[in-house]
Amino acid sequence: MSKNQKIKLKQSVTNNKPDINDLNLLNQPMISLNNQNTMFINNTIKIFVINNTLPTIIYKQLSNEYPTLKNILFLDTNKNTLLSSNHRCQFNINKNNLNQSILSSLWYDFIEYNLSSKFIKDLHDLFSFPVLYHLPFNHTNLEIEFQIGYNLPIFNNNYYLNSQQSLIDKDVIYMGWFLMRKDDDDSIGGNLEIYNNKKKITTIPYQNNCLVILENIQNKMENDNGNSKEEKIYFAFSPKQITLHSQRYISFSVKLRI
């Protein structure tokens, strides 16, 4: 192959590579859903796990441009809390406080999409959660709460021996986590666990580019004897061994607008 042919081939490959700055996130499907990358867990509650959720080119740049721990600590709503092993540092984002100063342009577009009614409609169209069948569905009547942050490294195993369970609020219609494990993170533990009335029903490994979303069924249900019982849904991240790696994930919840 001549030198000129090599130059033309290199130019051809370069020109065929998509320019991430030209991607309009609000005008294309963000979630890749197919039989190969989607796992449906049908226990008492409806849970979807979507591997390779975002196109690789978008995910890699989002991962490289993840907001720094310094910036998140600056905006952390719990900044006065003593920092310790596995402490969750995060800031809440909504349409009124979308702060572009700490975000890359891609992250700004990504969060803008996640806060949009289109994102809620896309989720509804993809997953069709039964709980929404009982509501006059209108995606403009739903609102989303969005958090981005880190779980700090584990400095002392004695501090974090058991899963720290968190109750999902009753007013949440569905909740999700977008896991963004770094490629060099070799830590052990930190897997997402889902509980129904304190009984663990599934564990999702901590990984990269993975969306987990569940339907919240915390309402009165009848048991086999015809008596009503209250369902409570919890989530937790499993214990981790000592590590210098922080854990990265985004969480969000969708609620009916009051």
Structural notes for this entry:
- The chain is of the alpha+beta class and 258 residues long.
- 20% of the residues lie in helices and 30% in strands.
- The chain has one domain (40-256): Sandwich (Jelly Rolls).
- The protein has 5 helices and 13 strands.
- The strands form 3 sheets. A 7-stranded antiparallel β-sheet has the order 1-2-9-6-13-4-3. A 4-stranded antiparallel β-sheet has the order 5-12-7-8, with no helix packed on it.
- A hairpin with a 3-residue loop joins strand 1 (38-42) and strand 2 (46-51).
- The protein is globular and about 40 Å long.
- Residues 1-29 have low confidence and may be disordered.
Quick overview:
This protein is an alpha+beta fold and 258 residues long.
Topology:
Blueprint lengths: L2 H14 L21 E5 L3 E6 L4 H9 L4 H7 L12 E6 L11 H10 L2 H11 L14 E10 L14 E2 L4 E9 L11 E5 L2 E6 L3 E8 L4 E3 L5 E3 L2 E5 L9 E10 L2
Low-pLDDT residue spans: 1-29
Please give the radius of gyration in angstroms: 20 Å
Look at the helices and sheets and give the structural class.
alpha+beta
Say what the CATH topology is.
Answer: Jelly Rolls
H/E series, N to C? HEEHHEHHEEEEEEEEEE
Q: Biggest β-sheet, characterized?
A: 7 strands, antiparallel
User: For the largest beta sheet, what order do the strands appear in spatially?
Assistant: 1-2-9-6-13-4-3
What is the name of the CATH class?
A: Mainly Beta
